[in-house]
Design brief:
251 residues, mainly alpha, 0% strand, globular, disordered N terminus
């Protein structure tokens, strides 16, 4: 699956563990249980909170944040931002990617559960990213959700992405798979699917929602990292292949 793709899906699963409620204490505690770093998970919560908004940090970055997760204040994230101005949240609702391509700064708005994966992916540690994602899914028993996503999206059959695939090569693949109009370069977070908290696995009726997660992963730069996560884990596990290989890959 992708946690933009797969990281987003992991938070969805934690949301499910919180009975579908965007509650700061429940989500923050659940998501941070798998982290070694002590990093505050900041979210806005209100009576009208949605799952989509609960994924994102709405507070401004400062020196204190940078001291806790210094890599998030360096390139390519630059969350403290030398210009003093991050891309407005409202703009990402309408268009997540930058005109030049991948928008790593979007991770600055994400909760702290994403920071380790973001660093591993951006620094080309695709193996580390895969292991971090696998540990999370095993801890929270969400393997079937991730595994079914890997097969539904065709990630298991994708032989173009390897451990050596660069972000520029990943952008080229995304351009081929999701060209404009309505491609990955123009997708906004307003298109984030509202998945039900009872969902445990993907099926052939979920093509449209799965495609949206793929678009998000292209826009945030973890498309190739998610594919490698699938390659190193569920695609090689006979039990999951037997159960989900009948899922028709996305065209």
């Amino acid at each position: 699956m992708s946690r933009a793709l797969l990281p987003w899906l992991s938070v969805f699963l934690s949301w499910r563990l919180c009975n579908g409620v965007s509650d700061v204490d429940c989500l923050g505690t659940t998501l941070l249980q798998h982290h070694h770093e002590v990093v505050p998970f900041n979210m806005q919560a209100s009576a009208t909170s949605t799952f989509r908004r609960s994924l994102f940090r709405q507070e401004a970055w400062g020196e204190a944040s940078c001291s806790e997760v210094p890599w998030m204040c360096a390139e390519p994230f630059d969350c403290l931002n030398s210009t003093g101005k991050l891309e407005p949240w409202e703009e990402m609702l309408h268009q997540l990617a930058k005109p030049s391509g991948v928008n790593y700064q979007a991770w600055c708005y994400a909760g702290s559960v994403f920071y380790q994966q973001a660093r591993q992916c951006a620094t080309q540690d695709l193996h580390g990213y895969a292991q971090t994602m696998l540990q999370f899914s095993q801890q929270f028993h969400t393997e079937e959700f991730d595994a079914s996503y890997c097969f539904l999206t065709g990630y298991c059959q994708n032989d173009r992405v390897t451990l050596n695939t660069t972000i520029l090569e990943a952008e080229d693949i995304c351009d081929e798979l999701f060209p404009e109009p309505q491609g990955w370069r123009s997708v906004g977070l307003e298109k984030f699917p509202d998945l039900p908290p009872t969902k445990h696995a993907w099926n052939n009726a979920d093509f449209d929602d799965a495609k949206q997660f793929m678009l998000f992963s292209c826009a945030m730069g973890n498309f190739h990292c998610d594919i490698n996560y699938c390659h190193e884990t569920y695609c090689q596990m006979e039990s999951y292949a037997a159960k989900f290989q009948n899922l028709a890959p996305l065209p």
